[in-house]
Amino acid sequence: MTSATHGTTTGTGRPPVVDLAAWQEARDALLVREKAHTHAADALAAERRRLPMVEIDGSTLVVGADGPVPFVDLFQGGEELLVYQHMWHDGAPFQGQCEGCTVSAWALRDSVYLRAAGVAFAVLTEGPWEEVPPYLEFMGYTEPWFSVRGVEWPVGGDMGRVTTFLRDGDRVFLTYTTTGRGVEVANPVFALLDLTPYGRREAWQDTPDGWPVGHGPCWYWRTTADGREDWDASRPTPQWTRPGATDVTSLGRHAHHH
Predict the structure, then answer these.
(1) pLDDT greater than 80 at residue 2
(2) pTM score, whole prediction
(3) DSSP characters over 160-190
(4) Which of 112, 177, 244, 252 could bridge across to 163 with cysteines, CB 3.0–4.6 Å?
């Protein structure tokens, strides 16, 4: 098909070729919509800040490297706390731990900018604490992790979430939580892929005819040592960067995740 602005597509899975002036015209038109999207997101964030909050028990004990501590201690003396709530497969080897939560935890392995903005950060998991430190060492994670095994939601319970809390003295309040695609905010790779011509290369995307056939959702979250998509004998993709990572023959999961 042809147009004065967008040129001709050949069905080869590539954008049409135009001159720089035509490209700039199309880019400027999209920029108007991008700015509107940004302003809409700003307005949504303003509504989020106006949500009511729920008081929770700040004395609830969670288990970390120094043993049991009250949840309020995770604020490190500040007013705000953001946590990532990480699923766990009991007894599974490193490669069997949650690939989706690895996407988030790997991106959040340095919270320096959150701390600079006055927001404490921690990872909570329902895994038993004795299984957690070896995993952290293997992954190279240095941010604080805590086991919330047996603790009720919103501190424990439903994992795979980004959740925020506010502290007022010894009182602690739940202010926000999100899961599913809401957790994409934790990892900029999703937004960066959306800037590329082929996007996430997932079948659900709205793409022109002739574009590469998309994979299933999350297809690159688990791979083999040579980079192939695999959901049986594979590791969460970042694990291949870790010292001692070897080929595996299974995920080694024997129980449902927590």
Answers:
(1) no
(2) 0.91
(3) SEEEEEEEETTEEEEEEEEEGGGGGGG-THH
(4) 177
